[in-house]
């Protein structure tokens, strides 16, 4: 059984990387659309170049400021920078969403419905608008008080974290809150909750001790969609904040093999995070049983 699980993880990883490689080889192929031709030979040649580069990744070079440098370890710095911003935003979003869910679930149905409507409306705000509002707010406060709360853009090789993390976490917080509310409200109507309330247990105690543990499992697995949403927003965020992350790194060299290798390097930590998280949940909470 253990070997089967390892094989399942390995297959999912290989299929995911294969998908990234197939997508990474598309740009030269799609460039033929401008000439109203699609040359599969170009796509096949691009695929072979990418696969060869992955196998011999130690030999791959990268042009930086008209200087040829090895891709590794030069690539690791922007990848780790982007991952740290994304991880910080994800942790902040999860924490804020769960705290707001616990507080909201304690209210009656009418109040909960009103709060959810407010969040649903807020979710429709474009992420670019949120970034602009955040930057303008920092500038306004600085003009009025002379206090610079946080940097609004990176200069040269400067690394900024606080404002990008806050901006990147806002919409995921709303998404996770909406998801958490659905899961928590479903748990509220289950028999074990009704039994706990019938014997006089307080609602806050039931929510934190009983509902939270069961609900957070579903939220964890559903959060995969939120992570990919954050990834798409991360590219916009890094551009607007002039961050020296993975976006700028890939834009400096629009090369299919560089793009693919960088994307795989970015994907691996996310894959490990969810694989280990799923394993821990099965082992610690559900006794090793599979989770739907």
UniProtKB/TrEMBL annotation:
Residues annotated as transmembrane: 9-30, 79-107, 119-142, 162-184, 227-251, 258-276
Biological-process GO terms, alphabetical: transmembrane transport
This protein's UniProt keywords: Cell membrane, Membrane, Transmembrane, Transmembrane helix, Transport
GO cellular component term of the entry, any: plasma membrane
Subcellular location: Cell membrane
Keyword field contains Nuclease: no
Membrane-topology descriptor: Multi-pass membrane protein
InterPro entries according to UniProt: MetI-like (IPR000515), MetI-like_sf (IPR035906)
ABC transmembrane type-1 domain span: 98-276
Pfam families recorded: BPD_transp_1 (PF00528)
Protein name: ABC transporter permease subunit
Organism: Falsibacillus albus
């Amino acid at each position: 059984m253990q070997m089967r699980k390892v094989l399942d993880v390995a297959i999912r990883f290989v299929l995911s990387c294969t998908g990234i490689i197939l997508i990474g080889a598309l740009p030269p192929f799609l460039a033929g659309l401008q000439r109203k031709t699609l040359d599969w030979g170009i796509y096949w040649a691009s695929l072979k170049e990418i696969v060869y580069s992955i196998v011999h990744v130690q030999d791959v070079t990268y042009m930086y400021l008209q200087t040829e440098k090895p891709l590794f370890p030069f690539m690791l710095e922007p990848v780790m920078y982007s991952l740290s911003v994304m991880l910080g935003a994800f942790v902040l979003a999860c924490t804020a969403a769960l705290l707001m869910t616990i507080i909201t679930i304690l209210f009656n149905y009418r109040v909960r419905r009103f709060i959810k409507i407010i969040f649903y409306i807020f979710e429709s705000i474009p992420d670019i608008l949120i970034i602009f509002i955040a930057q303008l707010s920092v500038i306004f406060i600085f003009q009025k008080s002379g206090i610079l709360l946080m940097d609004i853009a990176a200069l040269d090789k400067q690394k900024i974290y606080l404002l990008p993390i806050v901006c990147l976490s806002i919409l995921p917080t709303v998404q996770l809150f909406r998801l958490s509310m659905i899961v928590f409200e479903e748990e509220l109507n289950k028999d074990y909750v009704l039994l706990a309330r019938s014997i006089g247990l307080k609602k806050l105690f039931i929510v934190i001790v009983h509902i939270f543990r069961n609900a957070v499992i579903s939220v964890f697995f559903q959060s995969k969609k939120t992570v990919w949403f954050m990834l798409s927003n991360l590219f916009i965020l890094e551009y607007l904040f002039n961050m020296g992350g993975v976006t700028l790194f890939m834009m400096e060299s629009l090369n299919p093999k560089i793009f693919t290798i960088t994307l795989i390097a970015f994907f691996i930590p996310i894959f490990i995070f969810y694989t280990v998280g799923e394993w821990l949940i099965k082992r610690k909470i559900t006794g090793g049983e599979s989770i739907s």
